[in-house]
Amino acid sequence: MDQFMFTAVLHPQYMDSVSAWTITARKNRYQSLPMTPLLTWIFSIIAAIMLFLHGLASFSEEVARIGGERLRLRLHKLTQTDLYGALTGAISTALVQSSSAVTSMAVGLAHNRTLTDRGAFAVMIGANVGTTFTAWLVTMKIVGLGPVFVTLGGLWSLIGPRPWRPYGKVLFYFGLVFLALDLISQALAPIANSPALADWHELLSSPVLALLFAALLTALVQSSSVVTGLAVLLVQQNLIAPEVAVWLIAGANIGTTSTALLASTALDINSRKLALLNTGLNMFGVLLFATLLQPIVSMILNLTIATDQQIALVHTVFNLAAATAALIILPHIWPVLKRWLNRTP
Q: 3-class DSSP state for residue 188?
């Protein structure tokens, strides 16, 4: 081969032969690594989910960058009462689209005494309500507008007035979330009638398994919004039953507490206890969902509305009921919780 190449350099008439051989060799090399339809489909699903994750995380970061500092400065005043603290947590989470980010921020602000422990806990209670906005966003038929938001936001962030460019980024990433949802929906469509889907559905038909699966997946991706959005999307595509989706959402409520737990490991013992308290709050909500709220859940799932709206409504009622119960009993149990938080090991 080396001798042939050397000869070709000395004799230009051989160059055409070398080029033809090179092209053939490259073609054979790439043909030896075929991309099967199954592999293409798997990578399409993963890529769309990664796009969804990146869009949601970046949207959260941009919103926090725009209003995060002002929110931190005002949080102390906004959390003077339990109700105001919960409302602050709910609105912040609905805007940022990340209960994990809001609860982690609450733990951090309690650590540096910007927030009281009780104020931080009230924010956590509200964050669980604010996160239900994600499910409603997915049910809205604006997925097709994703490319429009991406285009307008991208242009605005590049050529808009400099002080307003961050808002263009927010619009860009907001559109990216819905563009990714559209791609996921298209990628999932071919498996709607797959026989393997029946086995998957049978596995998740167990509430305990669905709960654990969603909790682990949420802890892995560090976002309950992602798991909730996917659950609603799977219901829209008739890939899972609404009865399965509600348990996936309940599991996501537990898994999302892992972010605050991880964030608290770098802080003091009091912050770690506060993060544990957040986990206990969400487990209390799931217990409430599994017992007292089941008749209401059954009633909602029998309403004559779209199945994805049923899931969003169950999610809202579930978290709103848990938050209301927590706010009612908080004044009565806080003295005990405060002693536990302040106790040194």
A: helix
Which token pair is 131?
């996160």
Picking from 263, 280, 279, the residue whose alpha carbon sits closest to that of residue 108 is 263
42's tokens = 């798997």
- For residue 10, the 8-state DSSP code is H
Quick check: 158 and 171 in contact, CB under 8 A? no
8 A C-beta contact, residue 190 and residue 38: no
For 9-44, write each residue's pLDDT tens digit. Answer: 444 454 454 444 444 544 444 444 455 777 787 788
Q: Where are the domains positioned within the chain?
A: 37-342
| Element holding 92 (H helix, E strand) | helix 82-96
User: What span, in angstroms and rounded, lies between the C-alpha atoms of 215 and 101?
Assistant: 17
Tokens representing 316?
Answer: 């809202």
pTM: predicted TM-score of the whole model, two decimal places = 0.74
Q: How far is CA 327 from CA 82, 170, 178, 277, in A?
A: 7, 33, 34, 14
Query: In angstroms, rounded to a whole number, what is the distance separating the alpha carbons of residues 52 and 190?
Result: 20
